[in-house]
Structures are given as structure tokens and as C-alpha cells.
Design a protein that fits this description.
The chain is mainly α. Among the domains are: about 80 residues; about 100 residues. The chain is built from ten helices and two strands, in the order H-E-H-H-H-H-H-H-H-H-E-H. A two-stranded antiparallel sheet has the order 1-2. It binds protoporphyrin IX containing FE. The site of protoporphyrin IX containing FE has 28 residues, from helix 2, helix 3, helix 6 and helix 8.
Length: about 260
């Protein structure tokens, strides 16, 4: 079927583009995505309850249990995130850092056209992440790393859990007493002065954890709105691709596909 670009509407042209199925997201990337989704959801829910524990009148035992649960989910989250970091070097072409992080040859002009398409409410389909999407995904991953690092430190300072729990317990322990006797929310098991010092040390870490939590909520909201909007506008397969790994793309995007491969 031949098209006259002067008389055809955008939707006709869209319909005329022959589609080909591209295997975009490999199994590891999909698994990372959904494990990450579940962990972050769990961390946000439990973290929010911890944040409002005072208002909810949760007793100390309950707070300790919630924090331990939060840290256990946090370990799973961190293992998954670390594996994704490594996968960015060895995964398929779309999972590599070169295809995820902003930058590279022709990135700026591709970004400008990506922004123009979004502003004109006509987002172009992309095999991997769109140039704008790369910025969003990078910010999300950065926020997740900051949250992971601050969280693992807090796990040591607050509930004395690994990997730094022993170090912080030694710091705050009553002199000449076994640091393994240090317990969360038990002032009688710590030295008041060193405990105050340790709390001062941890103060910017908890502030970072809290601010990044707010940033993450905003980024996740933007991510979900963007994905759902593209899915609805383009009647596309951006969400199902995270389950099946496959995207149906216009043939003329082959060059993008091949440049990524
Ligand atoms: C997406 C990831 C995460 C989110 C959204 C999140 C969210 C939160 C929130 C909202 C709080 C309450 C902050 C407050 O009470 O001021 C919190 C506390 C805490 N988080 Fe996370 N967190 C995440 C990851 C982690 C990880 C990976 C760990 C450790 C492995 C962790 C360890 C902790 C600890 C120990 C606390 C208690 C701190 C305290 O109250 O003193 N978090 N988190």
C-alpha cells in the first residue's frame, strides 16, 4: 500500500507502518523490574508506617519489628539492585548502561525530538528507553542507590543489623560491657554520651533517607503517568513488554534497533 504523505493523516501513516516484533527486555531485566517493584512497594508501605509510628501510637516493640521487616525487604532490594548494576555491563544491548544512561552520539538531537513529540502529544515508539525515558530511569536508579546506601547504614545505627550493626553497637556500648548486649530502644544498654554522638553522626543519613523517599514518590508517580499515557495514546505494548520482553515496532525503527544491537 502506497501513501501520499501530503494527503495522509498521521493515523493513516501510523497504520501503514509495517510492524515487526523485537525482543527488547531480556529475562534478567524483566525479573529485576518486577522484584524491584515489589520490594520498593513493600519498603514504601513499611517505611511510611515507620514514619508515622508516633501518630499511630505504635509501641517500641512494634517499631523494632517494623524496622527489622523493613531492613529484611531492604536486603532483597539491594541484592536485586546490585545484580542490575552488574547486568548493565553484561546484559543484552537494551539492558546495557550505554542504552540506559543519557548521552552518546546523537543523544542531544534525539532528546530534542523526543521532547517535541511529547509536547505535541505524539510520543514516538522506541525499542528500548526513549531519550527522555533514559533521564527518568537514571534519576530513578540514582534515587534507589542513594536509598539503598543510606538504608544499609541506618540498619546498623538503629536496629544494629548487619553489615554495620556490630560496629555501631561497639561505638555506643557501655564501657567494659559486651557490645552484643546493646539493644534497640534500650537506653540502659548504651553509653549516653557515645549514643548521642552516634545519633549526631546518623542525623544527615536519616535526613537523606527521608528526602530521597519523597523524591522517589514523585519520580515513581511521573514514571507511572508516562508509561500509562504512552500505553493509552499509542495503544502500544510498553507495559506488556515488561512481562513478555517483546515489543511490536514499526519496521522503520529497525535502524534504532540495529544501532542498539
Ligand atoms: C526504595 C527504598 C526505600 C524506601 C522508599 C524507604 C523508606 C523509608 C522511610 C519512609 C523510612 C522512615 C523514615 C523516618 O522515620 O524518618 C525509612 C526508615 C528506615 N529505613 Fe528505609 N527505605 C528504603 C530502603 C531501605 C533499605 C534498603 C534499608 C536497609 C537495608 C532501609 C533501612 C531503613 C531503616 C533502618 C529505617 C529506620 C530508620 C529510623 O527510624 O531510625 N531502608 N525508610
Amino acid at each position: 500500500m502506497r501513501f501520499n504523505p501530503m494527503t495522509s493523516r498521521a493515523s493513516d501513516i501510523d497504520n501503514a507502518r509495517t510492524e515487526s516484533v523485537v525482543h527488547v527486555w531480556d529475562r534478567t531485566t524483566r525479573l529485576f523490574h518486577w522484584v524491584n517493584f515489589l520490594c520498593v512497594l513493600g519498603l514504601i508501605c513499611v517505611g511510611t508506617v515507620i514514619l508515622y509510628a508516633g501518630d499511630l501510637a505504635i509501641p517500641n516493640d512494634g517499631k523494632i519489628a517494623l524496622k527489622r521487616l523493613h531492613v529484611w525487604i531492604g536486603y532483597a532490594f539491594l541484592v536485586n539492585l546490585t545484580w542490575r548494576l552488574i547486568w548493565g555491563f553484561i546484559g543484552n544491548a537494551y539492558a546495557r548502561w550505554s542504552a540506559v544512561l543519557p548521552g552518546g552520539k546523537g543523544y542531544v538531537s534525539a532528546l530534542k525530538s523526543s521532547i517535541r513529540n511529547v509536547l505535541s502529544r505524539d510520543p514516538e515508539p522506541h525499542a528500548g528507553h526513549s531519550p527522555l525515558g533514559r533521564i527518568a530511569v537514571t534519576l530513578l536508579l540514582l534515587a534507589l542507590f542513594v536509598q539503598g546506601i543510606s538504608g544499609i547504614l541506618l540498619a546498623g545505627t538503629d536496629v544494629f543489623m548487619p553489615p554495620f550493626g556490630d560496629y555501631f553497637a561497639e561505638w555506643v556500648a557501655t564501657p567494659n560491657k559486651d557490645p552484643s548486649l546493646v539493644q534497640p530502644y534500650a537506653p540502659e544498654t548504651v553509653n549516653e554520651v557515645s549514643y548521642a554522638e552516634m545519633r549526631e553522626f546518623r542525623s544527615p543519613i536519616i535526613a537523606t533517607h527521608l528526602n530521597t523517599y519523597y523524591a522517589l514518590l514523585a519520580l515513581i508517580l511521573i514514571h507511572v503517568i508516562a508509561v500509562v499515557t504512552i500505553e493509552i495514546r499509542k495503544g502500544g505494548n510498553i507495559i506488556s513488554a515488561m512481562f513478555s520482553g517483546r515489543k511490536s515496532l514499526p519496521e522503520d525503527l529497525r535502524s534504532e534497533k540495529e544501532s542498539v544491537n
